[in-house]
Amino acid sequence: MIFKQLLSLLFVALVAFSAHAAESGALGHELTPVAAPYPAPAMRLKDLSGRQHDLAEFKGKLVVVNFWATWCPPCRREMPSLERLNKRLAGRGLVVLAVAAGEDAETVRGFIGELKPTPSFTVLADPEFSVMQTWNMRGLPTTFVVDPNGMVIYTAVGGREFDHAQLIKRLVPHLPRK
Questions:
Q1: Bridge-partner residues for 66, per DSSP?
Q2: Domain residues of the chain, as ranges?
Q3: The domain at 2-174 falls in which architecture?
């Protein structure tokens, strides 16, 4: 138990350093293709109203899984673009899941309440870093794109402008066919 807590604290320190280093940089607009796509790790978390969500329930959709924190400047800056992406492509089979790392639902709710417009995508809480550890995280924000077959096909470490034309151009071919 103590080892797990120390590991979590070390992870938070690494994440804080990564966020600080990226604070002054512009948001990127590229996704890194995964050379050998792999099955997305399991993910079961509660949203801010306490409803349980399982990544498996989104099979057949293109899912953007964004790990972030309220104290992370690039995470905060990319939230509006995640909302714009969601508004633009949700009707075509895109799902955005924003996973708040290491924070309780009350803290996350407070931050989300400050955003205008309020995000229409699903915000999940991972207060114990349980899911983050299984997703091979290297810092915050980190984003994974999961194709309709449940395979991780893109990653991005650092803040992104998710509604940038170049990024959308990468996503559109992977949207489910109607």
A1: 98, 143
A2: 2-174
A3: 3-Layer(aba) Sandwich (3.40)
Q: Which of 102, 54, 92 is nearest to 168 (CA)?
A: 92
Q: pLDDT tens digits for 121-162?
A: 999 999 999 898 899 887 899 999 999 999 999 999 999 999
Task: List the one residue out of 118, 134, 105, 138 whose CA is nearest residue 39.
Answer: 134
What order of strands is seen across the sheet that includes strand 62-68?
Answer: 32-39, 151-157, 142-146, 62-68, 94-101, 122-126, 44-47, 52-54
Q: What is the pTM of this model?
A: 0.86
User: pLDDT tens digits for 72-92?
Assistant: 999 999 999 999 999 999 999
- Expressed in angstroms, the distance from the first to the final Cα of the chain is 48
91: helix, strand or coil: helix
Furthest C-alpha separation in the chain:
50
What residues pair up with 157 in beta bridges, in sequence order?
142
Strand partners, 54: 44
- Beta strands 122-126 and 94-101, pairing class: parallel
| Residue-level length of the chain | 178
- For the record, the structure tokens of 55 come out as 């990544």
User: In 23-173, which ranges are continuous DSSP H helix?
Assistant: 73-89, 105-114, 130-134, 165-171
